[in-house]
Amino acid sequence: MEIFLSKRVMRQLRLSVADAIEDGEIDSLREDLVSAFSDDDVEEIERRIDSVDFYDFISEILDEWSGEDFDELLELLEAQLSDADVDLKYTAPETDDNEDEESDDEEEDEELVVDDDDDDL
What we know:
The protein is mostly helical.
């Protein structure tokens, strides 16, 4: 089974991890991790991990996490899901920033073209 996390979800998780590291509080991070998965994904993961519900599954991963690094948390999540025959796919957070900047530049260019056309009228 494959699960894909969108860029938006990855950004939210990255922010949640930063907040958890800064505050030392992981409850909202736990909630964000749980909500990153659809209900269907959660049901399938719970079926594959047998005796543990998904909230406890995420809690166990957070207990293993050092609380210091976003990438480490993702690696733990991927490893645990892999043990349940679930392949986690996502866009690396570093790539998101570059693509967003390029998209913003393209939008600015388009706006400039539109503005230039308005001036000609």
